[in-house]
Design brief:
Blueprint (H helix, E strand, L loop, with lengths): L5 H13 L3 E3 L11 E3 L1 H20 L4 E3 L9 H5 L2 H4 L1 E6 L6 E3 H27 L5 H7 L1 H23 L2 H10 L16 E4 L3 E4 L7 E4 L5 H5 L2 H7 L6 E10 L14 E11 L4 H17 L8 E5 L9 E9 L2 E12 L1 H10 L5 E3 L4 E3 L2 E8 H12 E5 L5 E5 L10 E5 L6 H12 L5 E3 L5 H11 L3 E5 L1 H6 L1 E6 L5 E5 H12 L1 H6 L2
Parallel strand pairs: 3-9, 19-20, 19-21
Antiparallel strand pairs: 1-2, 4-5, 4-6, 7-8, 9-10, 10-16, 11-12, 12-13, 13-16, 14-15, 17-18, 21-22, 22-23
Helix pairs in contact: 2-13, 5-7, 5-8, 7-8
Bound molecules: adenosine-5'-triphosphate (ATP).
The site of adenosine-5'-triphosphate has 16 residues, from β10, β13, β16 and α13.
Length: about 525
């Protein structure tokens, strides 16, 4: 996959719409900015991603359980968590174009340009030195690379420190020093930087009853924190233990764009792992390793992942990293792993006046646990899979195909059953096979058009296997299995069809790799 490939993102967006994965929300009214609906194939892929995550977290770990908390929470929750006072993004307007930007994103784009420069130098050197090329050595010694890297470090340190302190004047100063111009007007005529709170608010109850301002949760984590003792007591959980949750979150992002990468309504898969104070760093490293293994087991290409450790930490964290993925726009955050200390639980103790301590029978004392959080955006995971899977190929016979090489276990449909022709008892035989397979797999049946065209339709939605029923099937009870990726075809007896398909597309195979 090429970096910074706007064209690829456009292709994925239109493919996703054309093949029923993602539609713009309320499209008949010209859509709503940055809101999307998942279509008939999209919802299947999304559910499969959820299942992979849920099973890897909850089913495969005896000390992790799940919950499903309400989106609306008592408003004091968000005071305690710091979101009311500090869940802000710095925004800036260009006075000439009247366009609004996130000030930190404008600065990060300069960093991305230096990163692209480094990548270009590496590419050039690779071509020049061939097999003798030592990338690590090159990165550590090449003067152009070192200059760019120093610049990146300087900018990131300064931005991180100003964001941490909320020093808006310095963020503006940095924009001026870097001579950042508005991409629309080309001018450097900027307003001051202002804070903008990202939480959506609404009112609970009718105004007549005395309305109460409440928020749509901006993260699912707080629903876990306020329930941690309920779960611990009723589930007889002992530290260390975790609580997992999948659910919607809402953020009034200043600029929501890049398809489903940044939306105002999105879904998170979060897990909070409660540990003994002092043991958090061991667990932090442990979860980093586990989460990257979960990603890599999908086979989307190990080179597409990297960790980005935070130098400047949020007020609640004592260590944090992002799992970045090589999206069409370059490497960007896909998941965050944070050591959140006891910040949240202590804050909820203070604001609620309730004790949130765990009694540790081994130590014979009570304490507020420390927390390691893993937090991944479901929609971003969806986009990661779509970007790594989207492939345009020219086949041996010169024809073109667009194929989604989605990991088989996550594909919306695992198998399509296709009678070679629509007569002579083949459709009946195909339906008989289908009626048995559908207990184990999400299947499609298609008898319309020539077989080649039907294969293409399945390629476009990422179905890993097509089972073709032909005249021989009626004679010897065998069918052909066609592989989406290498186009190989094997003949198998109908009796072994299920087990053959299971070998390649059962979620179990993925989970066993972890
Ligand atoms: N607006 C959004 N749209 C889609 N997914 C999101 C959005 N904001 C956050 N996420 C997802 O939720 C995960 C955890 O949220 P977290 O608060 O750590 O994100 P973040 O650091 O604010 O993300 P970013 O820096 O990209 O805004 C992110 O890794 C991302 O996958």
């Amino acid at each position: 996959m090429a970096q910074n490939d706007d064209n690829l993102l456009k292709k994925i967006t239109s493919h996703a719409k054309e093949y029923g994965f993602i539609f713009p929300s309320s499209e008949i009214y010209d859509g709503l900015a940055a809101a999307y609906d998942y279509g008939q194939n999209g919802v299947e892929l999304k559910n499969n991603i959820k299942e992979y995550w849920w099973k890897a977290m909850v089913q495969m770990n005896e000390n992790i359980v799940g919950i499903d908390a309400a989106i609306f929470m008592h408003p004091t929750t968000w005071k305690a968590s710091g979101h009311v006072d500090a869940f802000n993004d710095p925004l800036i307007d260009n006075k000439d174009s009247k366009k609004r930007y996130r000030a930190d994103v404008l600065i990060e784009e300069v960093v991305a340009k230096y990163e692209a420069k480094i990548a270009k130098e590496v590419e050039k050197a690779k071509k020049r030195f061939g097999d003798a090329f030592d990338e690590a050595q090159f990165l550590a010694t090449n003067p152009n690379v070192l200059r760019s890297q120093t610049k990146i470090d300087e900018i990131e340190q300064r931005l991180g420190a100003s964001m941490e302190k909320g020093d808006l004047a310095d963020i503006k100063a940095l924009i001026e020093e870097l001579e950042i111009a508005c991409p629309v007007s080309g001018s450097k005529n900027w307003t001051d930087v202002r804070q903008f709170n990202l939480m959506f608010s609404t009112e609970l109850g009718s105004v007549a009853e005395g309305a109460n301002k409440i928020y749509l949760r901006p993260e699912t984590a707080q629903g876990i924190f306020v329930n941690y003792l309920n779960v611990q007591k009723t589930g007889r959980m002992k530290i260390p233990f975790g609580i997992a949750q999948i659910g919607k979150a809402f953020r009034n992002e200043i600029i929501a764009r890049q398809f489903i990468f940044r939306m105002r309504e999105f879904e998170q898969m979060e897990m909070q792992f409660f540990v003994k104070p002092g043991e958090e760093m061991t667990w932090y490293e442990n979860w980093k390793a586990k989460r990257i293994a979960w990603h890599k087991a999908l086979g989307l290409g190990e080179e597409n992942y990297r960790f980005h450790d935070h130098i400047n930490l949020a007020h609640y964290a004592n260590a944090a990293t992002d799992v970045q993925f090589n999206f069409p726009m370059g490497f960007k955050e896909l998941e965050g792993i944070h050591s959140r200390t006891d910040f949240d639980l202590k804050a909820h103790e203070e604001h609620s006046g309730k004790k949130l301590q765990f009694f540790d029978p081994e130590e014979n004392k009570s304490y507020v646990p420390y927390v390691i959080e893993t937090s991944i955006g479901l929609d971003r995971m969806f986009l990661a899979i779509m970007s790594a899977s989207y492939t345009e190929e020219t086949l041996e016979d010169g024809s073109e195909r667009t194929v989604l090489k989605i990991p088989a276990a996550l594909a919306p449909y695992k198998v399509a059953v296709l009678p070679l022709v629509k007569k002579d008892g083949l459709p009946e035989k195909a339906r008989e096979i289908l009626s048995d397979l559908r207990f184990d797999f999400n299947c499609q049946y298609d008898e319309k058009d020539a077989i080649g065209k039907r294969y293409r339709r399945q390629d476009a939605i990422g179905t890993p296997f097509c089972v073709t029923v032909d005249y021989d099937t009626l004679e010897d009870n065998t069918v052909t299995i066609r592989d989406r990726d290498d186009l190989s075809q094997i003949r198998v007896s109908i009796d072994e069809l299920k087990s053959k398909l299971k070998e390649s597309c059962a979620l179990e195979e993925l989970l066993r790799k972890l």
